[in-house]
Design goal:
1 helix, about 5% helix
């Protein structure tokens, strides 16, 4: 599966920790950054795949599950540490669910928003990857 959990450097300090995401952490140029927050209990986000875009997800606060599917295999990864991110390559269906109270999901993307890059129907996704 075209995914990878990546450790983000953590600089520990008694005054609080600091983590930095620079060009050597993720394998693409950052073209878009957004974040999900105030996700209601039981709500799900994602529910799509990208044809070309790659994304890097980080749980800045709280936790949530990322359900991944490449058309053959399915996998669930829990993100709960602000110094750990999940790189999701193109062609991977993703659903984000089970957000804890106060969670914040940071998304760093390889491209600017382009609706044409999205596959929003799971059956269409299965047809594309087969």
């Amino acid at each position: 599966m075209n995914i990878e959990k990546i450790q983000i450097p953590k600089i520990e300090d008694r005054r609080g920790n600091l983590s930095v995401i620079e060009k050597n952490i993720i394998p693409f140029e950052i073209k878009r950054v957004y974040y999900l927050y105030d996700v209601p209990c039981g709500a799900e986000r994602g529910g799509h795949a990208h044809k070309e875009h790659q994304e890097f997800l980080v749980a800045l606060s709280g936790s949530f599950e990322v359900v991944l599917n490449d058309g053959i295999n399915s996998r669930v990864i829990v993100l709960s540490r602000p110094y750990e991110g999940l790189l999701i390559g193109n062609g991977i269906w993703r659903e984000l669910k089970n957000f804890s109270s106060g969670s914040v999901c940071l998304v760093i993307a390889s491209e600017v928003f382009d609706e044409e890059d999205y596959i929003r129907d799971f059956n269409d996704f299965l047809n594309v990857v087969k």
